[in-house]
Amino acid sequence: MPERLAEMLLDLWTPLIILWITLPPCIYMAPMNQPQVLMSGSPLEINSLGEEQRILNRSKRGWVWNQMFVLEEFSGPEPILVGRLHTDLDPGSKKIKYILSGDGAGTIFQINDVTGDIHAIKRLDREEKAEYTLTAQAVDWETSKPLEPPSEFIIKVQDINDNAPEFLNGPYHATVPEMSILGTSVTNVTATDADDPVYGNSAKLVYSILEGQPYFSIEPETAIIKTALPNMDREAKEEYLVVIQAKDMGGHSGGLSGTTTLTVTLTDVNDNPPKFAQSLYHFSVPEDVVLGTAIGRVKANDQDIGENAQSSYDIIDGDGTALFEITSDAQAQDGIIRLRKPLDFETKKSYTLKVEAANVHIDPRFSSRGPFKDTATVKIVVEDADEPPVFSSPTYLLEVHENAALNSVIGQVTARDPDITSSPIRFSIDRHTDLERQFNINADDGKITLATPLDRELSVWHNITIIATEIRNHSQISRVPVAIKVLDVNDNAPEFASEYEAFLCENGKPGQVIQTVSAMDKDDPKNGHYFLYSLLPEMVNNPNFTIKKNEDNSLSILAKHNGFNRQKQEVYLLPIVISDSGNPPLSSTSTLTIRVCGCSNDGVVQSCNVEAYVLPIGLSMGALIAILACIILLLVIVVLFVTLRRHKNEPLIIKDDEDVRENIIRYDDEGGGEEDTEAFDIATLQNPDGINGFLPRWGLPVQWWEERNPIQTCLFSRSRIPRSLRFIFFHKDTKINCITQWTT
């Protein structure tokens, strides 16, 4: 019985507990546009509009006296009742007036001054303004005096889900390496929702992919995009478009959503080897092609791009590895085959090469995919061409003695036509390299002969160029340098290396070295120069001097005795015979001049002149110059004295200016001009005192005197002119003018 009673009590209370648990959420979700009453006074009281309103208000969270709430975006035919103001001082006699001020008072919110009802007269948007602060006050209707202090309260705009999520930074672009593993992170995106994040789920976002599967996936809450498939190949598909959606209300139905796009590009990795487009290449090349010329190109294609597609080319095998080379073109990504050495059709007509292309940058992650290289075969066919003659040697070196006879053969050059036709060859000398025409060549056999004598001492080397020309095709020519060395023969006698002049001190000692001389020879013997010195046979027993050969091929001259005196003999001439070691030997005689000089005690030469010897002992050169200067000064003084005395004794020519008269005599005879230097005696004009010596003698006719000296006749035609005559004479090209002045 007790157990039955317990079960009945449990059945009774279980529905009540369930009802009590489920009742508050229902009350909370009730519309919030029900009127709210704010009571002024202390303490605050709530005037309910009914029992149902009281239950709603109490079950929500309890009213705060200074807050009212209104839903955003609410619209209807009538203004929305936000709440009601009421004071305990209002007995209902309509003597109290309610006043509203603050944010939006009168424009957004309107109050009934009698009942205190507050209405929203405009549509509100929480995203523009979330709350409004207003002030309410009750005043006397008639006097408008405040009945109580003003009360401040807030009207909050409650959020509704009226804003869809937005991707502010979209559309998005991202890259991910190809062949990435599953779950590789690509990027993340972010959407924003303008709704209130703390009220409901209006701003709670959930992300999903609408397009782009099965390649990519997205985390619903973090929006991180990852690869959903492994080993995606860029060469198969490089770019993917992913459409991403962000939905509010936690992703539930009825929520708002926004979308954006993400473009994912697969970046390249080196996962493909190079591959030749063909396994066999054919090229042909003329045999006379210039070295370094490109013969052909081969290319290995690589599906990768950039540096992953770069390949290097090499010749790894074949019979032409020494004649050909291959280089890589970084721009075109191909290999260029070039010629390294000359080709000869007559020797070999074709070559086979094995070429390899290998990736430069290899990714070890994909080494298992096989070797990243490929090979191909290249066949090169050599074509015949008309080639120029080929000399038997690239250069020639010939030697000839300088005394070789004219027209003698000094050497020979040979050349042949490498072609099958084998045209005859004609030889000639490039005369620009042999301007003096010292050599000739036989046009048929290429023998070089001497045309003019050679002299090794003038030129040791001669460089000429020989030209070989095909007779059948004169355009096919070849050139070869020929160096001709002139060999020495002993054709020059030795001589002194320079002009020597020896000085011998009077106070010298016997055996003293006077001078050391050396010789030179223009010839160039193979074993070097070796000279023999000797005196002339008639001077072998020279009483004054002797010679001594030195180890360095020079010669020393020594004095045999002392006591040389420059008063007795100032200069000695010593002939010396110099012989070389040639075959046959040549010799010459050179004379050494030995001058006797006065020297100091330590052997320093002071003077070598004989006149200096008669000067007093101890008289220096400075003293001699001073004495000479004094003598010259005395001579100048004497000359000046004599000149002044002579001018003092001379009488004046003109004693009185009033007695001066002029007599101008004009002759119509033409003079001889400036070249007539015999027409007058200038010495007479410069020395008036000597006039009397030139006066004509009285017994001679005047005509005779005029014919011989017209100038003197002009000057002295008057026999009574005094001796103290002052005259002026002008001699011109056409006239002779004579002006005489005299004193009475």
Automatic annotation (TrEMBL):
- Which SMART domains does this UniProt record tie to the protein? CA
Q: One short Pfam family name for this protein?
A: Cadherin
UniProt KW Calcium keyword:
yes
Q: What is this protein called?
A: Cadherin domain-containing protein
Q: Give the UniProt keywords, A-Z.
A: Calcium, Cell adhesion, Cell membrane, Glycoprotein, Membrane, Metal-binding, Repeat, Signal, Transmembrane, Transmembrane helix
Entry membrane topology: Single-pass type I membrane protein
Q: Which residues form a coiled coil?
A: none
One of the record's GO cellular component terms: catenin complex
Could you tell me which residue ranges the Cadherin domain spans? 87-167, 168-276, 277-391, 392-496, 496-618
**Predominant place of localization:** membrane
- InterPro entries found in the cross-reference section: Cadherin (IPR039808), Cadherin-like_dom (IPR002126), Cadherin-like_sf (IPR015919), Cadherin_CS (IPR020894)
One GO MF term attached to the UniProt entry? beta-catenin binding
Subcellular locations according to the entry: Cell membrane
Segments traversing the membrane: 613-642
Could you read off the lineage of the organism from its UniProt record?
Answer: Eukaryota, Metazoa, Chordata, Craniata, Vertebrata
Biological process terms from the Gene Ontology for this record are:
adherens junction organization; calcium-dependent cell-cell adhesion via plasma membrane cell adhesion molecules; cell migration; cell morphogenesis; cell-cell adhesion mediated by cadherin; cell-cell junction assembly; homophilic cell adhesion via plasma membrane adhesion molecules
